[in-house]
Amino acid sequence: MTAENSEIQTTQAIPAKWLGNYLPMWIGQAVSLLGSGLVQFALVWYMTEKTGSATVLAMATFVALLPSVILGPFAGALVDRLNRKAIMIISDTAVALATFGLVVLFHLGIAQIWHIYVALFVRSLCGSFQYPAMQASTSLMVPREHFARLGGINQAMNGVITIVSPPLGALLMSVMTMQAVLAIDLVTAAIAISLLALFVRVPQPPRSQTAEALTPARVLADVRNGLKYAVGWSGLFKVMVMASLINMLASPAFSLLPLMVTKIYGKGAAEVAWLESALGLGIVAGGLLLGLWGGFKRKTATTLTGLIGMGVGITVLGLTDRNTYLLAVGMMGLVGLMNALANGALGAIMQTKIPPEMQGRIFTVIGSLASAASPLGMLLAAPVAEKLGIRAWYLIAGVFCAAMGVYGFLKRDVYTLDDQEPGGKLAAVTAAAEELA
Fold first, then answer.
1. Assessment of whether the complete model's pTM goes beyond 0.70
2. Where are the domains positioned within the chain?
3. Alpha-carbon distance 47 to 151, whole Å?
4. Which fold, 18-201+215-436?
5. N or C: more exposed end of the chain, with fewer CB within 10 A?
């Protein structure tokens, strides 16, 4: 069976009442993300107040990215072979246990920075399994004609979480103990796990190899096949490289945002919350726009336009100071809107073009390569921020992100990605039409 036929049969197998099965998982994920957002804000602001160090924040980001860099491809191979519902439940449970450990440590008054590092590592390790499992399952649970709009809705959901989490986190930290704020994540995780376990049927990909014995050699072979598939697809591989380079420069910029607020703007937690909420509002606007509009006819044009817009926003953000804080808020909104367009459209392309039985590996390969560049960026960003100032890094990241968008428009194998068949061959009809033109 060809990859193309696999897509058709998968689509036909999806029940007409698919939404009733998918919605509980989506709601659970939204609730869980809210809890995770509160934990993320609380931990980052705790480290900022305790240390005021760019190096500490950089190390926290490095630790959180390490599992996805090292284990991502192997996690993807397991996602493609094992029960995806069980993977998501186990991963969510392990994350809750890591948070529970922090709750106990803060309650006893013995929590230290390295304890937070360990918790961030565990949360990231579980995310290396949970997120690709959900992404790969979506293409088997949702009709493919809804992929782009669902991508927009998911971006909007993430934006709402980004809007709500910082101010809510700041409010809760002002009236509750640290351990009480962290405990909220335990409740949201329990809701997500219950909804998934009781109300959702997660189908497995139609892959005969799943019957084979799961051995280390088999997993390594799956990883090699996934890497070979991704590298052999020229357009996809270039997108992976672009994502890696953008992450290397853009991720540190957002990790250093609390220091940008305290040292450049001379403000505090509330202003950090407003900036992050503006980012979330932009993501909501971009997600809703994509959900209603669907993007340009060529989805890659939507993604590349989003990259250019993100670059402009980050660059201007790097030019702001304490007198132009409101402009910074507006630029964060622009970055969020363009990010939603870029990610939502690209996700739809990947879910449509990559065969379901390969999606776990390909998604984690893309994520691993992109994440691998982020620690390098953090290691570079910390000394640059200390010596040249935090804003210098924003300028570098913004200009480069916009340049990557322009590069994508100029490269035919990238620009025509959503016209290509699985594996990278340009569809014959499209190629013929372009030759006639």
1. no
2. 18-201+215-436
3. 33
4. Growth Hormone; Chain: A; (1.20.1250)
5. C
